[in-house]
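Quick one:
INPUT:
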């Protein structure tokens, strides 16, 4: 055989051996890791082969107990399904695969556990502040119970934890519980109990434990038994027939106690009356006298309070008008009328509640008596009582007079005229206000509130009408022109009927503009020659309604120039035209000044003309000689008269 053919045969044999080795018979089981199954769940083990076309499978438990599962084999796979998992399924399972003369086995272990529900939290009775209670955390149907760990927390604070290391040693589901005793406090309201259960069912290796965990949270329902029950009675517990009385009952507790009113009967039983906190009895009769009971009741207890009402026979009635309280403006007149029915000849007397002087006039006639307060002043702000005596019975009625002062609209004042861009202070004054601690002032521009003030503190030792104001500084702009400034004052007095309770004043804004961009020029130049023509011009660019005045500074003051639209022309300028020229620009908002110096240079000197210096000397000499003569004449006359005074 040729050498080349031998090499080919050897190579093919080697490839065949490698292929055959790669197709060796193998068995795998999945999952490979230990299975932890909860009782009642479904678990499947799958056994698969490679390197065999027609394998034969069989399953058994390691202790040869019944499989308690269903086997399904197809092709190179076989599946053992346990549904549902029970205690009987806790063992190791072996899959045997046969291929020809070869037999292979694979094993996996199934461990079961039970933690099917969240813990349940209970407490003994009702949680009441200050009373010891027991909290129970129940974990139902646990297996294995010796692997259970339970924690009980209040919010994030651990109350107790326990590991149940000693089990019963039986394969059974157990209900496990953890108990804690504690005393609720008010601060526990709204807090929560947390019960956390951990079941350490096994571990896949020493470093990786397998844990199942469940927890339940429950809010504390803390209660307080009713206490401090109080009854408030309007006016008095001693009443006249026909009177009305209102009683208000309150009781503390958690949850808030419900109020129940009743009346004690002669046999000791209670007659239910109302389930409202307020009990009003009208047109009472003598038989309505008795003991009235208020009870505050909630889920965990009750508390009661009693009050005794005595209703006396009513012979007559007294009425006061107008209705109390009477609102009166300082300076007005108030008439209080006390009327009696059921008594033909009553006797009247008036007094203030604090027995201060009445400061009024009393007039009684028949069954009526009036107290007139005119004019009303702060001294009259009292409770007034009308006492009526009829035979041996006396009744009193009271009426309150409350005073106020709000006589006029607010006054708007500006610190200066409104000029665009210039800060201005606006003041809103409300004159003669009382009581000014109830005053509120608003300053608006259009509908927008610029400023509000309502914290006018009133000195209790000094009670009198005062003028109060609101001031603010703002910078007006031309956009404010035409807007309306509103000052609104409100006197907020509850339970007093009077008009008006609100006053306001308005002022339309007009914003002026200060002249700007002002220029003063000399054309062709500020330096000219004698005999030239020069035009002095003054302009102002931003304000339409502006007055422009041109002036020249002279020794006696300012000389007004006859300018046209701010322009003044000097033709054939002379030396005396030189000097300082001033332009003044005026508007309603203000004025501005600009100035320039005009320089007029003289012509060159010529011998054919007299110099100005010679001309001045000539005129001076012509005046000095007559002056000397007049002085000598008046001196001689004074000497003749014996007087040394100069004339």
């Amino acid at each position: 055989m040729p050498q080349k053919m031998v090499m080919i045969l050897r190579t093919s044999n080697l490839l065949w051996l490698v292929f055959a080795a790669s197709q060796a018979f193998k068995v795998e089981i999945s999952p490979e890791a230990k299975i932890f199954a909860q009782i009642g769940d479904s678990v499947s083990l799958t056994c698969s082969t490679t390197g065999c076309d027609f394998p034969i499978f069989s399953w058994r438990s390691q202790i040869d107990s019944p499989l308690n599962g269903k086997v399904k084999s197809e092709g190179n796979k076989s599946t053992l399904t346990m549904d549902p998992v029970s205690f009987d399924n806790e063992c190791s399972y072996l899959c045997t695969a046969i291929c020809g003369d070869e037999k292979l086995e694979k094993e996996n272990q199934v461990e079961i556990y039970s933690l099917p529900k969240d813990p349940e939290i209970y407490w003994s009775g009702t949680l009441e502040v200050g009373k010891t209670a027991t909290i129970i955390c129940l974990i139902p149907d646990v297996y294995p119970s010796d692997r259970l760990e339970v924690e009980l927390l209040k919010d994030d604070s651990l109350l107790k934890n326990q590991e149940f290391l000693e089990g019963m040693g039986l394969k059974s589901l157990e209900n496990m519980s953890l108990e804690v005793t504690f005393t609720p406090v008010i601060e526990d309201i709204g807090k929560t109990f947390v019960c956390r259960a951990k079941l350490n069912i096994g571990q896949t290796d020493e470093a990786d434990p397998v844990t199942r965990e469940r927890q339940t949270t429950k809010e504390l329902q803390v209660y307080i038994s009713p206490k401090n029950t109080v009854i408030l009675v309007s006016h008095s517990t001693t009443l006249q027939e026909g009177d009305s009385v209102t009683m208000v009952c309150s009781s503390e507790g958690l949850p808030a106690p419900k109020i129940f009113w009743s009346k004690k009967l002669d046999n000791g039983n209670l007659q239910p009356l109302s389930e409202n906190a307020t009990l009003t009895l009208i047109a009472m009769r003598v038989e309505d006298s008795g003991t009235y009971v208020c009870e505050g009741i909630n889920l965990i207890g009750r508390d009661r309070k009693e009050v005794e009402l005595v209703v006396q026979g009513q012979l007559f009635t007294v009425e006061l008008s107008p209705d109390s309280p009477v609102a009166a403006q300082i300076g007005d007149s108030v008439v209080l009328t006390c009327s009696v029915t059921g008594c033909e000849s009553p006797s009247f007397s008036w007094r203030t509640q604090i027995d201060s002087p009445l400061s009024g006039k009393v007039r009684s006639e028949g069954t009526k008596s009036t107290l007139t307060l005119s004019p009303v002043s702060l001294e009259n702000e009292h409770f007034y009582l009308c006492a009526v005596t009829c035979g041996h019975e006396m009744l009193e009625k009271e009426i309150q007079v409350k005073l106020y002062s709000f006589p006029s609209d607010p006054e708007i004042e500006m610190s200066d005229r409104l000029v665009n861009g210039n800060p201005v202070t606006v003041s809103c004054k409300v004159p003669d206000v009382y009581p000014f601690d109830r005053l509120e002032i608003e300053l608006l521009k259009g509908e927008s509130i610029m400023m509000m003030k309502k914290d006018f503190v009133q000195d209790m030792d000094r009670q009198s009408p005062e003028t109060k104001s609101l001031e603010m500084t703002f910078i007006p702009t031309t956009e404010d022109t035409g807007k309306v400034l509103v000052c609104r004052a409100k006197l907020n007095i509850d339970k007093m009927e009077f008009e008006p309770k609100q006053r306001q004043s308005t002022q339309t804004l007009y914003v002026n503009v200060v002249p700007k961009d002002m220029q003063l020029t000399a054309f062709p130049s500020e330096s000219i020659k004698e005999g030239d023509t020069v035009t002095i011009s003054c302009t102002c660019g931003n304000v339409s309604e502006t007055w422009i005045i041109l002036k020249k500074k002279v020794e006696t003051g300012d000389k007004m120039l006859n300018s046209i639209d701010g322009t003044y022309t000097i033709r054939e300028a002379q030396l005396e035209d030189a000097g300082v020229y001033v332009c003044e620009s005026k508007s309603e908002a203000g004025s501005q000044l600009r100035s320039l110096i005009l320089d007029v240079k003289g012509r060159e000197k010529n011998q054919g003309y007299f110099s100005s210096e010679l001309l001045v000397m000539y005129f001076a000499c012509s005046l000095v000689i007559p002056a000397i003569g007049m002085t000598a004449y008046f001196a001689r006359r004074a000497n003749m008269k014996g007087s040394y005074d100069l004339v």
